[in-house]
Write a structure and sequence with these properties.
3 domains, alpha/beta, 6-stranded mixed sheet, Cytidine Deaminase, domain 2, Rossmann fold
C-alpha cells in the first residue's frame, strides 16, 4: 500500500513542518483543511485545500469543512472491493493513503478556571474524530496518524519502503480509537459534571510512563494519568537525580503527599508501605525532620520522605546520612542538591505544584469486574465540630496535638491508631482487624523507642466499640483521646475515660482508609 496521497488536518502544528516537508519530498500529494492548508502553504509546499475538492467553502465559522463524501469516501474506500473502487471512479474521487489528524484541545480548555461554557463547547471537535475514526476503521488501506511522536518514524518507514507496514497501520488504528475514546470521555465527563455519580462514568487514562516493575519484580506496571486532570501525582515534579521511580515508590509518594497536605507549618513526613511511620511539625523544617525520624528510626529506613519547605545544606546532610528511597521537597538550595546527589540511588524530586487537591474529586478502588467510586477524603479537619465529651477542656498545646494526631490518622490504614505528643508521632498502629490490637501496637512501638507517653494524645479513625482500647492508652499515660464516636457503647467508653481522669473528644466524622 504505497503512500501517494495524504490528508492533514491538525490543531496542534508542532512538528508539522518536518512531517509535511518530508512527505512532500517523498512525492506524496498533500491535501489539508483550512488553517492547516495555510500553514503548509507558508512552508512553500504545494497543498490542495479541502474546499477545492468538495467545491463547498468552510461553513458556520469552520464548524463544517471536512464532512463531505469526497473526503470520507476517499478515506473509507476499500481498495480490494470492486464496488468501492468503481464508486470512487464514478465520482472522480482519489483515495487517501494517510490521514493525519489531531483534535481541538477540549480537555485543556474545559479544565481552565472560570472557562465559559460557550468556550468549552467550541472546543468539541466533530470533523476531526470523524476522519480519524474513518481512517482507523479502514486501517487495512489507510494509515491513521494522531500522535506527533509518530511523525519521524513514519517518515523513515515511508522513505525506506514507500509504504506504511500493515502492523504499523494496525498500531496506528489502535492509537486513533484510544485517542478519540479518551476525547469523547473528557467531553462526557464535562457534561456529566453536574452529577456526583452520573449513570455512566467514563474514565480515560493516558500512560505517562512505564515502570520498572509492579509491587513485586514479576509484575509489569505503568503509571497512568486521568485525561484532563488539573493535577496529578507527578504534575510539575522534576526528578533531579536517582534511580527510576518504581510502582511502590509512587504509591508511597502519594501517601506522603496526602499527609503533607494536612499541614501549613514546616512538616516532614516519612512513609513506609503506604503508612506514615514518622511525622513531625515544628517552627523550622530541620527540627520537623528530626522529630519525624526520631519517631520511628527503624521503620524510616528506606522510606519515602516529603517536606513542605526548602531543603538547606544541614538538612540535606542529615538526610544523606539516612537510607532514603525518595525525597520530595518544593525546593533545594544548590549546595543541598549537590550533597543529596552524592547518593545515586536516592530519587530526588522537586515539587513545583502549588495547586491543592480539589474537594469533590473521585477515588477509585478496583474490585472484580469493576470499581468502587467515592468522593475523595480531602477536607482538612480543624477544631470546628469537635466536642469534648469528658475531662478538662484541652489547652492550646493539647488541642494542637489532638488535631495533629487526628489529621495523620486519616492517612493510616484502618484500623488506625496514632499516638502523638508535641507535634510528633510516637507510635502508629495500622491495618489491624481489631482496634484494640492497633492500640497495643502503637503503644508498644512508642515504648520500644523510649518515647515518654505521659501527657500524649491518641487518635482513632473510627469509634471504639469497647472501653478496653482507651483504657490501655490511659494506663500508659495518654492524657486525651480523639475519636468520632458512633458506637452503641459510647457512654461506657466516655465513662471509662472520665473515671481515669482523661479527656475524650468526639470528632464530627470518621476516616476509614481500607
Amino acid at each position: 500500500m504505497p503512500v501517494r496521497r495524504a490528508l492533514i488536518s491538525v490543531f496542534d502544528k508542532t512538528g508539522l513542518d518536518r512531517f509535511a516537508t518530508g512527505l512532500a519530498e517523498l512525492g506524496v500529494e498533500l491535501v489539508a483543511s483550512g488553517g492547516t492548508a495555510a500553514y503548509i502553504s507558508e512552508l512553500g509546499l504545494s497543498v490542495t485545500p479541502v474546499d477545492a475538492l468538495t467545491d463547498v467553502p468552510e461553513m458556520l465559522g469552520g464548524r463544517v469543512k471536512t464532512l463531505h463524501p469526497r473526503i470520507h469516501g476517499a478515506i473509507l474506500a476499500r481498495r480490494d472491493v470492486r464496488a468501492d473502487v468503481d464508486a470512487l471512479e464514478e465520482h472522480g474521487i482519489e483515495p487517501f493513503d494517510l490521514v493525519c489528524v489531531n483534535l481541538y484541545p477540549f480537555a485543556q480548555v474545559a479544565s481552565r478556571k472560570d472557562v465559559r461554557e460557550e468556550e468549552a463547547v467550541e472546543m468539541i471537535d466533530i470533523g476531526g474524530p470523524a476522519m480519524l475514526r474513518a481512517a482507523a476503521k479502514n486501517f487495512e488501506h489507510v494509515a491513521p496518524v494522531c500522535s506527533i511522536e509518530r511523525y519521524d518514524a513514519l517518515l523513515l518507514e515511508i522513505q525506506a519502503t514507500g509504504e506504511v507496514d500493515a502492523d504499523t497501520r494496525r498500531e496506528l488504528a489502535a492509537e486513533a480509537f484510544a485517542h478519540t475514546a479518551a476525547y469523547e470521555a473528557s467531553i462526557a465527563t464535562w457534561f456529566g459534571d453536574r452529577e456526583t455519580f452520573p449513570p455512566k462514568l467514563i474514565v480515560a487514562l493516558e500512560r505517562q510512563r512505564e515502570l520498572p516493575y509492579g509491587e513485586n519484580p514479576h509484575q509489569r506496571a505503568a503509571y497512568y494519568v486521568e485525561s484532563g486532570a488539573r493535577r496529578d501525582l507527578l504534575s510539575r515534579v522534576e526528578q533531579l537525580s536517582g534511580k527510576e521511580l518504581s510502582f511502590n515508590n509512587l504509591a508511597d509518594l502519594d501517601a506522603a503527599r496526602g499527609v503533607l497536605a494536612e499541614f501549613e507549618l514546616p512538616t516532614c513526613v516519612v512513609v513506609k508501605h503506604g503508612n506514615p511511620c514518622g511525622v513531625g511539625v515544628a517552627s523550622a523544617l530541620e527540627d520537623a525532620a528530626a522529630k519525624a525520624y526520631a519517631a520511628d528510626p527503624v521503620s524510616a529506613y528506606g522510606g519515602v520522605v516529603a517536606v513542605n519547605r526548602r531543603v538547606d545544606p544541614p538538612l540535606a546532610q542529615r538526610l544523606a546520612d539516612e537510607f532514603v528511597e525518595v525525597l520530595i521537597a518544593p525546593e533545594y538550595t544548590a549546595d543541598a542538591a549537590e550533597i543529596l546527589k552524592q547518593k545515586p540511588n536516592t530519587r530526588i524530586l522537586e515539587d513545583r505544584e502549588r495547586r491543592r487537591a480539589t474537594l469533590g474529586e473521585r477515588d477509585f478502588a478496583r474490585v472484580i469486574g469493576g470499581f468502587l467510586v467515592q468522593d475523595s477524603d480531602a477536607e482538612v479537619d480543624d477544631r470546628e465540630g469537635m466536642e469534648v465529651q469528658a475531662g478538662e477542656q484541652p489547652d492550646e498545646r493539647l488541642w494542637g496535638d489532638l488535631l495533629f494526631a487526628w489529621r495523620i490518622c486519616k492517612h493510616v490504614n484502618s484500623n488506625a491508631i496514632v499516638v502523638a505528643k508535641e507535634l510528633q508521632t510516637l507510635g502508629v498502629g495500622a491495618g489491624q482487624m481489631s482496634r484494640v490490637e492497633s492500640v497495643k501496637i502503637a503503644l508498644d512501638k512508642a515504648r520500644e523507642l523510649g518515647h515518654a507517653l505521659e501527657g500524649a494524645v491518641l487518635a482513632s479513625d473510627a469509634f471504639f466499640p469497647f472501653p478496653d482500647g482507651p483504657q490501655l492508652a490511659l494506663d500508659a499515660g495518654v492524657k486525651a483521646i480523639v475519636q468520632p464516636g458512633g458506637s452503641k457503647r459510647d457512654d461506657e467508653v466516655v465513662a471509662a475515660v472520665a473515671e481515669a481522669g482523661g479527656t475524650i473528644v468526639f470528632a464530627p466524622r470518621r476516616h476509614f482508609r481500607h
